[in-house]
Amino acid sequence: MSRNNELTLSREDVVRLAERVEGAQRGAYAITKLTDEYPSMTIADGYAVQSELRRRYIAQGHRLVGWKAGLTSKAKMQQMGVDVPSIGFLTDRMARPENSAISTADLVHPRVECEVAFVMKKDLRGPACTRQDVLDATDYVLPAVEIIDSRFSGFKFDLASVIADNGSSARFVGGGRARYVEDLDLRTLGVVMEKNGEIVTMGASAAVLGHPADAVAMLVNILADLDEGLPAGSFVMSGGITEAIAVKPGDSIVARFQELGSVSMRFV
Ligand code: 0L1
Ligand code: MG
C-alpha cells in the first residue's frame, strides 16, 4: 500500500479538521492549509475529512446530488502545482440556476471553469470502471460552469488539503442544451469562456484526461476506494477544460460550448 493510501489521522483529528473546513466554507473565510498542522497528512486522510464533511452536511439536511472530478486537465494541474486528479461531492445547496445572479458575499475568492456534465441513468461501481462503462451508463450530457472557491489563503495548498476542502467545490450551474453521448464526439468539443464580453480562455474537452468520460471513470474508481458507488440520477462534473478564471461582483460570464450551447451567469 502506498503512503498516500494510508490513514494517519485519528478519528478526533478527522472530525476537528472537518469542523474547521465547514467553518471556513460556511463563514467564507480563508484558513491555512491543513498540512501546516499535519505535515504527513495523506490523500486518504484528505478523503476521510471530506467524507466527514459530507456526513455533516447531509445530517443538516443537504441533499447529495452528484460528484465532481477536479484537477483533471494539465492546465489545472500546472496552475495548482499538483499531479493527481481528485473528486468532491455536490449538494443541492451548491446548485444555481442558469442566467442567475450569484452572490460572492458567501465566497472567499471564487473562480469559474467550463466543464462537461454527465447525468447518469444507471448505477456505476468501480474498481475497473472504463470510459465505455461511463458512456453506457450516461443518460445525457450538458454544459456546466463550476464556481470553485478554495478556502485556503492565497490558494496555497496541496492535494491532501484540497481534497479535505471538498476539491474547492462551492457552486455550479448547468444549462445550455442536453445531448445524448452517441450524437457527439465528446473528445473534441471546443469551449470558449467570455468574461464581460471578452474571451478570457478557451480549450477542447480532450484536455480532461483525454476524454471527459475517462475523468468520470476515474471518479467512479476513486469512489470505489471510498466504498461508494455512483447512483443513477447523479449529476457529475468531469473537470475544468481550461484554467480557472477569477470573478468578482459585477462580472458576467458566458461559457460557449460547441454542440452544447452556452451557460451564463453574473456575479453580485
Ligand atoms: O474543480 C477542480 O478542478 C478542483 C480545483 C481544486 C483547486 C482549486 O481551487 O483550483
Ligand atoms: Mg472543476
Automatic annotation (TrEMBL):
The residue range of the signal peptide is none
Q: Give GO MF terms, alphabetically.
A: 4-oxalocrotonate decarboxylase activity
User: Which InterPro entries does the entry link to?
Assistant: 4-oxalocrotonate_decarboxylase, Fumarylacetoacetase-like_C, Fumarylacetoacetase_C_sf, Hydratase-Decarb/MhpD_sf
Q: Which residues form a coiled coil?
A: none
Domain (Fumarylacetoacetase-like C-terminal) spans: 95-267
Gene3D superfamilies per the UniProt record, alphabetical: Fumarylacetoacetase-like, C-terminal domain
Question: EC number(s)?
Answer: 4.1.1.77
Q: Which UniProt keywords apply?
A: Lyase
Protein's recorded name: 2-oxo-3-hexenedioate decarboxylase
Source organism (scientific name): Aromatoleum toluvorans
